[in-house]
Amino acid sequence: MKFLLFLAGSLFACAGIYFLRRITFPELSDITLTHIGRFMLQPDLWVGTFLYGLAFLVFLVILNRYEVSSAVPSLLGTYLVTVSIFSILVFSEAITVNKAIAYALIIGGVWLLS
Question: What is d(CA 11, CA 58) in angstroms, rounded to the nearest whole number?
Answer without folding.
Answer: 11
